Amino acid sequence: MPVYISILLEVTIYSALGVYFIGWDSGSCNFLFSIVPIIIYFGCFLFKGPKRWLIVFFLALNYILFVVLYTLFSKAVPVFVLAAPMRMTMMIFSTFVMVFSMIFYNTIYIYSSEGEMLSLELQNEQLAVDANKDTLTQLLNRRGFLPLVKKRMEDTNEHFCIAFCDIDNFKRINDTYGHDCGDEVLRNISRTIEKELPECDVCRWGGEEIVILLNDYDFDTARQAMESLRTLIETTPTVFYNKRIHKTITIGLVEYQGDFESAEEIIKTADERMYYGKQHGKNIVIYKNVG
Known about the structure:
Elements: H1 2-22, H2 31-34, H3 36-46, H4 53-73, H5 84-131, H6 142-154, E1 160-167, H7 170-177, H8 179-196, E2 201-206, E3 209-215, H9 219-235, E4 238-240, E5 243-245, E6 249-255, H10 263-279, E7 285-286
Parallel strand pairs: 6-7
Antiparallel strand pairs: 1-3, 1-6, 2-3, 4-5
Helix pairs in contact: 1-4, 3-4, 3-5, 7-8
């Protein structure tokens, strides 16, 4: 703000004194036009809301001063009468400064606006990504995952499987080692799944539940992959502050065969199979309806 005000005062005073001492024909009044972009662009950064009227106020003062100087000094004899070549030089110089200032500050404004627009676009893209991801595990959340399943179901030529995973005895891990440890177990299992199944889409469905969309997997291949994943998680403890946390998961597996009406329905079926496995020993892959 001090810089903004000092620039306006300096140029305004210089223009007024220039016109008074060396005459209207010296072009000193042109400097009033050179600060118009400064008044507008820098004012927009400094003043927000109703304070934006200060920009209009400064522009009005600038214009009024120009009219006053023209009225009082356009025909008056200046204090110092310059030779014609000097007056011409001063006029060309002041006109150049006016035009250069207009071009310079407009260019800055354009590049600044483009930079802000690009920054906003990048931020919006990041927000869109964040809105579809779970902050703890960086897996997809339901919002990001369900459209992928629906898209697969809409293509009748596609075949895929859904695996619904639940960490066994997760509450006991939290109660024994603390929630920070539970979070690390979740992250560790999430990383393991993404590493072992890089071509699959993985979602944190909620709590300790993870859903996997096994793209282009037939049922036998999906069952073998889930059994390998279950074994890997069982035999690879999570290290947390020098503690080795052993964990297991129970998995319900479903193959899409065109007999499900919605993504939620096929996921619910996988969930029911997983729940049956929880009730009958845990640390198991259930791949068909039982009971």
